[in-house]
Amino acid sequence: MLATVWRMLRNSHDAEDALHTALAVLWEQWALVERHANPHAMILKICADAAIDHLRRRQVRARHEQIDRAFDAAFDRAVELVPSRQRLPPDEAIGHETMDQIMAAIARLPDHQSVAVAMRFVQGASYARIAAALGCSEATVGTHIARGREKLGELLRHLDPNPIQE
After folding, report:
1. How far apart are CA 58 and CA 55, in angstroms?
2. How far is 34 from 43, CA to CA, in rounded Å?
3. Is residue 86 domain-shared with residue 154, that is, in the same domain?
C-alpha cells in the first residue's frame, strides 16, 4: 500500500498522509472490500485514489498560496501608491479608511477576479502578465476584470459622492 502511494507522490510525508487516508477509507469500507471479487485490487485502488486526492489538494493549496502572494503584492503596491504629500491627520485617516475599504472589497471578490483586478488597477499589470499569473488566457482575464469591476461598483457604491439616481 505504501509503495503504491509513494510511487505517485514521491514524498514520504505526503505518502504517509495519503496512506492514513486510505487506511481510514478501508476501515469504513471493510465490508465491501471483503465481498469484492479482487480485494487486493480494490485496496490498491483506494490507495491510488487517496494519493490522487492528496495531489489535487497539494495543487489547490499551491494555487491559493500563489493567489495570496499576488494579492499581498498588489496590496503592498496599493499602499505605495497612496500619495505621500503632507496631509492633515483627518484627511490621512479618511484616505487610509477608503483604501482599506477598497482593498477589503477586492478581497471579497472571487479569487481570480480579486487577483486580476488588484494586478490591473493597483499594480498596473498587463493582461499578458495577469494571464500568466492566473494560468488562463488574456480573454479570460478581461472577463475576470469586467466582472470584478462590476462587483466592486456594487460593493463600493456607498463611497460615490455623486450617486446616480434611478
Report:
1. 5
2. 10
3. yes
Looking up cell 501608491 gives 81
The answer as to whether 50 is a domain residue is yes
Closest CA to 152 of 119, 98, 103: 103
Res 166 pLDDT > 50:
no
Domain, as residue range, for 34? 2-60
**Average pLDDT over all residues of the chain:** 80
| Residue among 136, 102, 141 at smallest CA distance from 122 | 102
**CA–CA gap between residue 159 and residue 162 (Å, rounded):** 9
Q: What is d(CA 145, CA 143) in angstroms, rounded to the nearest whole number?
A: 5
Average pLDDT over residues 38-64: 89
Number of domains the chain is built from: 2
Cell of 145: 476584470
In a domain, 101, yes or no: yes
The residue with cell 455623486 is 162
Give phi and psi for 9, each to the nearest 5.
Answer: -100, -30
CB atoms within 10 A of CB 165: 4
Please identify which residue in the block is written with the cell numbers 490498491. 44
